[in-house]
């Protein structure tokens, strides 16, 4: 099987440009323009492959304007005399563009590496009497990012809310912290398994199945909607999203992530081509709610807050901080409403999901 460095959609978009696919002599020019005035060129329609001209040069199709012949028959650019009038090699009218082309061979796209924050270990070392020897953190999270529509995601929104895939109720083993930690780790394992399979040639459906299988191993199957997870992974794998995009998308849709803000992750000559959105993701929805409403009560978070979008500050609460919280000042209605919404019919569906998932695991 052949390795898939990026999605086929991105290959079609760039026709092999910007160093993401094998380069050709006609696939090394990229142009970008901030059309909406938000300070970057990361939105759809703001980045494009340049067109080869009959003169052997390049022209950016963004802002392309037909030239007009003057009284002597010489083509003039309506945008200004500083812009050259050229003829596309593929045919068409003589035109000009105000946006320059960038040689991506000499000026490659610079992309920040993905930071994989493992979060706090669920079980640290203890002494002979079972006392924790490390730092206790309550409702600890882990930092992660997802990418909105941009060049490297084929202009698909990898941060899109795709529904509640991970279940977060009250009662049964799924309400325990240890089980929720296992679910969070299982999701990460599954996302990586799906993405790895897709990268080495599996179809999106095969990769999603591999990811779902990795997720349910060792977990209470009622903690995750397997059918929704499979559909989610098929959709997102075809959109050029990576494993961390998938993980955040799943946790965010389930109400377990706090959005810190957006920042640029891919640039060329200082021009932003792809943004990311930093999050703190937790093991439970309740953990996220208590963190959001508890931090403003604690002086220890006054300066750092949630950190920065690029480096979210996701540590858990110390026992002393947790004891200092005034829960009477917190609005937990979001969590209560979620619990109340779990009608008897939903409980029965959960039980069926549990039986079906275990049977699926046994058969493999």
Q: What report would you give on this structure?
A:
By secondary structure, this protein is α+β, with helices and mostly antiparallel strands. It has a domain at 110-121 and 136-363. It is 30% helix and 15% strand. It is built from nine helices and 13 strands. The protein has a four-stranded antiparallel beta sheet with strand order 10-12-13-11. Strands 2-1-9 form a three-stranded antiparallel beta sheet, with no helix packed on it. Strands 3-4 form a two-stranded antiparallel sheet. Strand 6 and strand 7 (75-76) form a beta hairpin. Helix 2 packs antiparallel against helix 5. The two termini are 24 Å apart. The relative contact order is 0.13.
Question: Can you describe this structure in just a few lines?
Answer:
By secondary structure, the chain is an alpha+beta fold. Helices cover 30% and strands 15% of the residues. Helix 2 runs antiparallel to helix 5 (243-253).
| Biggest sheet descriptor | 4 strands, antiparallel
Low-confidence stretches: 1-27, 169-177
C-alpha Rg (nearest Å): 25 Å
Content of β-strand: 5-15%
End-to-end distance, in Å?
A: 24 Å
Q: Can you give the mean pLDDT?
A: 80
Tell me the total number of β-strands: 13
What is the count of helical runs? 9
Helix amount:
25-40%
Write out the strand line-up for the largest beta sheet, numbering strands in chain order. Answer: 10-12-13-11
């Amino acid at each position: 099987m052949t390795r898939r460095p990026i999605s086929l959609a991105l290959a079609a978009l760039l026709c092999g440009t910007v160093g993401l696919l094998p380069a050709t002599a006609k696939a090394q020019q990229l142009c970008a323009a901030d059309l909406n005035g938000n300070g970057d060129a990361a939105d759809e329609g703001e980045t494009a492959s340049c067109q080869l001209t009959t003169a052997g040069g390049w022209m950016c199709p963004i802002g392309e304007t037909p030239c007009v012949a003057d009284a002597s028959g010489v083509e003039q650019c309506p945008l200004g005399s500083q812009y050259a009038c050229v003829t596309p090699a593929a045919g068409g009218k003589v035109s000009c563009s105000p946006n320059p082309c960038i040689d991506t061979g000499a000026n490659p796209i610079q992309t920040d590496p993905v930071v994989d924050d493992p979060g706090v270990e669920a079980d640290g070392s203890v002494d002979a009497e079972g006392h924790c020897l490390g730092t206790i953190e309550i409702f600890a999270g882990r930092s992660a990012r997802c990418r909105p529509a941009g060049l490297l995601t084929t202009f698909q929104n990898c941060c899109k809310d795709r529904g509640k895939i991970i279940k977060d109720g009250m009662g049964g083993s799924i309400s325990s912290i240890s089980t929720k930690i296992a679910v969070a780790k299982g999701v990460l394992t599954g996302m990586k398994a799906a993405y790895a399979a897709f990268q080495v040639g599996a179809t999106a459906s095969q990769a999603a199945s591999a990811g779902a299988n990795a997720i349910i191993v060792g977990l209470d199957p009622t903690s995750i909607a397997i059918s929704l997870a499979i559909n989610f992974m098929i959709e997102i794998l075809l959109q050029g999203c990576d494993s961390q995009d998938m993980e955040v998308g799943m946790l965010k849709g389930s109400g377990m992530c706090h959005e810190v803000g957006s920042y640029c992750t891919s640039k060329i000559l200082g021009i932003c081509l792809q943004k990311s959105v930093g999050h703190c993701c937790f093991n439970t929805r309740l953990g996220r709610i208590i963190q959001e409403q508890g931090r403003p009560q604690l002086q220890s978070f006054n300066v750092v807050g949630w950190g920065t979008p690029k480096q979210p500050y996701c540590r858990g609460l110390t026992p002393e901080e947790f004891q200092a919280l005034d829960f009477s000042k917190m609005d937990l209605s979001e969590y209560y409403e979620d619990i109340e919404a779990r009608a008897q019919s939903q409980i029965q569906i959960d039980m069926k999901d549990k039986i079906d998932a275990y049977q699926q695991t046994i058969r493999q």
